[in-house]
Amino acid sequence: MEAKVSPQKFIVPIGPQHPALKEPGHFEFTVEGEIITGATVRLGYVHRGIEKSTEDRNWVQNLYLLERICGICSHIHATAYVLGVEALANVTAPPRAQAIRTLVCELERIHSHMLWLGVAAHEGGFDTLFMYSWRDRETVMDLLEGLSGNRVNYSVNVLGGVKIDVDEKQAATIRKGIDFLEGRTQYYMKVVTTDETFLGRTRNVGTMTYDQADALAAVGPTARASGIARDVRADAPYVAYPDFPIKVITERGGDLAARFVVRINELYESYRLVREILDKLPVGELTTRVPRRIPENEAISRVEAPRGELFYYLKSNGTEKPERIKVRTPSICNWATVMNFAIGLKLADMPMILAGIDPCFSCSDRAVIINRKSQSQEWSWEDLRQYGIKYYR
Amino acid sequence: MNISISPLIALLFFPGGIFLLGSGLVYEYIDRKLVAQFQNRVGPRWFQPLADIIKLLAKEEITLAGVNPQLFVALPVVALAAALTAALYVPMFGFQAMFSFRGDLVVTLYLLSMMTLCSGLAGANSVDRFSIIGATRTLTQLFSYEAPFLLALLGPAIVAGTWQISDINTYAMSHTWLILTQPIGFIVAVIGLMGKLELPPFDAPEAETEIVSGALTEYSGRGLALFRIGKDVELVIGLTLVVAFYLGGLGNPLVFLLKTLVLRLVTAGLQSLFARLRIDQTVGMWWRIGALVALVQLLAVIIGLFIGKII
Amino acid sequence: MDITEAIQTAQDLLNLWTSGMSTPDLSRLDVVLAPKDLKPAVRILQKAHWGYLSAITGLDHPPLPASPDGKQPAKDGSLEMLYHFCEGAAILTLRVSAPYARPAIPSICDILPYATLYEREAIEMFGATFRGTPNTEHFVLPEDWPSGVYPLRKSFTGLNKPQKAN
Amino acid sequence: MPIGVMLSDILSSLFKKPATEQYPFVKEPVPERLRGELFWDPAKCTGCQLCVKDCPADALELIVLDKVNKRFVLRYNADKCIYCGQCVMNCRFKCLNMSNEQWELAATSKAPFLVNYGRDEDVQFLLDKAAQEEGPVPCEKP
């Protein structure tokens, strides 16, 4: 790192590699003492060119590619995509499949919010809460693993339905796990809302009013913590949400503490929904046929990822491959809120505010494209391998 | 316990020198293991602190461009030397202090502050931005906890009527435990100790999620190893001091072990119980609450003594 | 606002400028706009508080040679930007196209400041230009990315292969 | 002003076993539906290639030796496989399945990741042919 110490500008770089960020992103904060006077963001360190790659794969293959945009919200990406493709092909998945999709969506939301609780606590230097919430998160990970076979990329969706079924034994395991988690969540709610040292780091930190959140088009829990009742699950219900309506959770505070409360309250809502779905699981088929070639059409698919509204735009051209797939992830929407609110805050609060929107860098970036003044635009795997061998020799 | 050891051996091997370093590592291990247990984790294996140090010592030390190289090399040495010297005036492991004179309490406290001062200077010496912010925070924190910590240790000194650590120790052994008569002083001393050692929740100067590793970000290899050992030694000395003053003194190694471990358990618990305080919160807390209650305690002690004398 | 009402409101608001409207399904309204009409349209949406800008999708329409039988004339390449606004379940898409030769579209950042990230993405990915956009730095592509290479255009094939002629 | 709300948890942890799973030493049971290494049963395969077409990772390759007599070899690249299970889903004759036992697939060389499934004589035939040509094993799709 070069020495750039001038009395006017003192820039603290955070990232692309920094202990506060588990994923790469680059932020520059200009500080005066501990107070931030400027902020910029630069992404792209994990840009994988997924949108371009989709144009080179068939509709089925894309499902697995898009599922891997994000490790935490993998199922919701797959869901948004299959809903889009089903809309393009004009088919609807059977009710039981829709309910199972919803079930996995909600379980995924539970795991994502628990993960976030731990990360946010860690950013605030509260490692004990971090360890405990991640320990308990294992419960829901185990449920998902038992249900789908994998911990991360569940691969539950297929075009036109789902791969897995839920039997009575599994339903019982899930109910038991959810009961345990509900008890623990009540406990975490108590910790984050009453512990004075923790509240000292969250209360009135990074406050965003309703008007500000509205003007910056915040989405997801970040918006809901500022009182905006914006939730795709309620606004434009998809999969089985029309049958299992949700209550939109909002908070007035707009600060970090409110974001904690909103997410934890959403956990309760998810627990309720999971139980309800298990009780009233429709019977019937799991899949329906989707044609391999999809006629020229356009579709927009919006779903509520754990982090907020996830937006897919799909365009088909009558072949087996899509013409264009556009993915707009919730984290992109929320960056604007962070960058606008950093100014005037303390440096020590920044990691928590960054974590407060639950950013997902992999989501925001979507090609390992390396360019070192050579003529090539993109390196093939072979080039990359040779480069690696040369580099380490 | 009175054993006379040749000063040279005392300095280099036992109870100073090598033995002190070893016990520093043991206490670091105990700390890490206890915090892990509190967080329901497994924690490191017994040799981990030693392995860390050996690994660091074996690694290349990178001296940055733009720093003062003499200072860069000297600071860790001075820091460790100060911590080791401080140990000579303290009844380590329940043995009598190696050297003792009137007023060695003040000297010891200054020597302990040297460590923090050195790491602050080390940070300010590096040109890295994280180091500079870390150094600012280290020094800010130094100024905030030092006064309350000193006041908290003054209480026992005043009731004992001496500024000599050994004498205070003897006084503490023969009287009611001072934790009962001066509870506030004890609490301030323990929390002051945690602030001194930059343990959570007072780890703002090295908050990894904000400024990587604070003042020591640019240190690697030998320098970092020395700083770490220095901190471990300081930990042992700090524990010894608080135990000697407030928990009924130190008579023999067994008592020492028992009492310091109990105190370590308490501090490990406190470490895992709180979220990190921002530096402004730390300073505010120490000056608004810490210094004030320590002063009140001190006044109460003085008035108590005064009344005792009159009666 | 329920869907039909929201769609109706949007239709009423935008009637003045549009050169074509369609509703591909119940919850969607596509409005074709000339680039010069984009800003007034966005402004009126914002004034009426109709939804929020959810995304800007870029589409590349590569040039087509004339069909051999001469029935279809050759077509110049163009870029199309879709501005998706969402209000509840209703989605309004403003479609603005610009030919390769003059790929300039007015920036809407002065009306909706948060559009800057989307515009930056469209600039580097498609080579569109937004008149008046505050920041044209790379957003996701590396700093030393060659200028004039736009990865999401159909002509970009990457992987060391020569680019298809435009 | 409540502080230290997590005290009860911390104290109880002092007398609890750590929650950490000591993985290589202690192995937890795996879920029944775990998608591990892929296995192929040559008896039922008709050579429709549906599994190969939809494989998102290009991990499968069906080599047709004799279409009429149903002599196929399935070349499976376990290192490319992303264990999504689409091939199992696609197969109408249920000749593919994913093991929930074989999942610890780490190795120090690439060799164990290239698996040829099929009748022994067919695989041998392929290997011999490759050895004769002394080139790389043919990987062109049929």
Give an overview in words:
The complex is a heterotetramer of chains A (393), B (311), C (166) and D (142). By secondary structure, chain A is α+β, with helices and mostly antiparallel strands. Chain A has helices at 50-54, 59-67, 74-89, 95-123, 127-148, 168-194, 196-202, 210-215, 220-224, 232-235, 256-279, 330-341, 350-356, 361-364, 381-392, and strands at 10-14, 26-32, 35-42, 157-158, 161-162, 297-305, 308-316, 322-328. Chain A has two domains: 50-328, Cytochrome-c3 Hydrogenase, chain B (Orthogonal Bundle); 369-393, no CATH class. In chain A, 48% of the residues lie in helices and 12% in strands. In chain A, the strands form three sheets. Chain A has a three-stranded antiparallel beta sheet with strand order 1-2-3. Chain A has a three-stranded antiparallel beta sheet with strand order 6-7-8. In chain A, α2 packs antiparallel against α3 (74-89), α4 packs antiparallel against α11 (256-279) and α4 (95-123) packs antiparallel against α13 (350-356). Chain A starts with 9 loop residues before the first strand and ends with a helix. Mean pLDDT of chain A is 80; it is low at 1-7 and 366-381. With 311 residues, chain B is mostly helical. Chain B contains 13 helices and no strands. Chain B has helices spanning 7-12, 17-38, 48-58, 69-87, 104-125, 129-160, 165-174, 178-181, 183-196, 208-211, 221-246, 253-273, 279-310. Chain C is of the alpha/beta class and 166 residues long. Chain C has a domain at 3-62 and 77-131: NADH:ubiquinone oxidoreductase Nqo5 subunit (Beta Polymerase, domain 2, 2-Layer Sandwich), CATH 3.30.460.80. The longest helix of chain C is centred in the first third of the chain and has 13 residues, at 35-47. Chain C starts with a helix and ends in a 35-residue tail after the last strand. The model of chain C is unreliable at 161-166 (pLDDT under 50). Chains in contact: A-B, A-C, A-D, B-D. The interface between A and D is medium-sized, with 33 and 26 residues.
Summarize it.
The complex is a heterotetramer of chains A (393), B (311), C (166) and D (142). Chain A has 393 residues and is an alpha+beta fold.
What keywords describe this structure?
heterotetramer, A: 393 residues, alpha+beta, Cytochrome-c3 Hydrogenase, chain B, 2 domains, 3-stranded antiparallel sheet, 12% strand, globular, D: 142 residues, Alpha-Beta Plaits, two-stranded antiparallel sheet, 4 helices, elongated
Q: Helix fraction of chain C? A: 10-25%
Topology pattern of chain B, helix = H, strand = E: HHHHHHHHHHHHH
Biggest beta-sheet profile of chain B: none
How many structurally independent domains of chain B? Answer: 1
How would you name the oligomeric state of the polypeptide chains in this document? heterotetramer
Radius of gyration of chain C: 17 Å
Give the CA-CA distance, first to last residue of chain C.
46 Å
- Quote the average pLDDT of chain C: 81
Q: What coarse outline of chain C follows from CA principal-axis ratios?
A: globular
Taking pLDDT < 50 over at least 5 consecutive residues as the criterion, the unreliable ranges of chain C are 161-166
End-to-end span of chain B in angstroms? 35 Å
SS element count, helices of chain B: 13
β-strand percent of chain B reads: under 5%
Biggest pleated-sheet summary of chain C: 5 strands, mixed
What's the shape of chain B? globular
CATH architecture of the domain at 3-62 and 77-131 in chain C: 2-Layer Sandwich
What is the class of the domain at 3-62 and 77-131 in chain C in the CATH system?
A: Alpha Beta
Q: Which strands sit side by side, in order, in the main sheet of chain C?
A: 1-2-5-4-3
**Helical/strand content category of chain C:** alpha/beta
